[in-house]
Amino acid sequence: MAMKWYKQNVWAAAIVTLIRIYLGWKWLEPGWHKLTGGFDASGFLNNAVKTPLADKTTGELLYPNYTYFIEHFALPNVKLINIMIPLGEFLIGLGLIVGGLTLIAGFFGIMLNTLFLLAGTVSTNPWLIVIGFIVFTAGTNAGRFGLDAYLLPLIGKYWAKLTHRDRKEVEEVGTGRIVLK
């Protein structure tokens, strides 16, 4: 019952909208500074490889696959990373602030914060994951007061045409079968 209220109620949507805008600003601002200020991730990535997260007693790496990924993919492609991180942060923030493709922005925000945590940067990342989870679990109600109110019906309409589901599905009474009409 509480989740139904959270995902459908207009007052819950208003509360989540305020949280969403705050979270969006927390993404947009650093993304903008990185886009306009000359961002270079090579120092961060090198540090993540040199001092990876390890168990204090055994010294064993906690996330060896992620360290391998950074060393063998991210560092050799640091020019791509230098574009993707600032652009991603900015677009996540913009999507959350205007309420456009809110669930996608929330999902990628959570994912990016998780990647930062796996690299060993704590900072505000745990809080941003929690706040992102609050926005993400609200579902489409998170974008009710935003562009999603207009975008999602359009996307649904075109998706239905693309998948040939623009015909009505009607359940035949008593049989349990669904028939396209």
Oligomer: single chain
Number of contiguous helices: 8
Number of strands: 2
* Distance between the amino and carboxyl termini: 34 Å
Mean pLDDT: 92
Radius of gyration: 21 Å
Largest sheet: 2 strands, antiparallel
Helices and strands, in N-to-C order? HHHHHHHHEE
Biggest sheet, strands in spatial order?
Answer: 1-2
- Specify the structural class: mainly alpha
The coarse overall form would be elongated
Identify low-pLDDT runs: none
| Share in β-strands | under 5%
Number of domains: 1
- In percent, how helical is the residue content? 55-70%
Keywords: Membrane, Transmembrane, Transmembrane helix
Protein name: Thiosulfate dehydrogenase [quinone] large subunit
Membrane topology: Multi-pass membrane protein
InterPro entries: DoxX
Describe the protein's architecture and organization.
This protein is mainly alpha-helical. The chain has one domain (2-146). 67% of the residues lie in helices and 3% in strands. The protein has eight helices and two strands, in the order H-H-H-H-H-H-H-H-E-E. The protein has helices at 2-8, 10-37, 42-50, 64-74, 78-98, 102-118, 125-137, 148-162; strands at residues 169-171, 178-180. It has a two-stranded antiparallel sheet with strand order 1-2. Helix 2 packs antiparallel against helix 5 (78-98) and helix 5 (78-98) packs across helix 6. The protein is elongated, with a radius of gyration of 21 Å. The two termini are 34 Å apart. The model has no long low-confidence stretch (mean pLDDT 92).
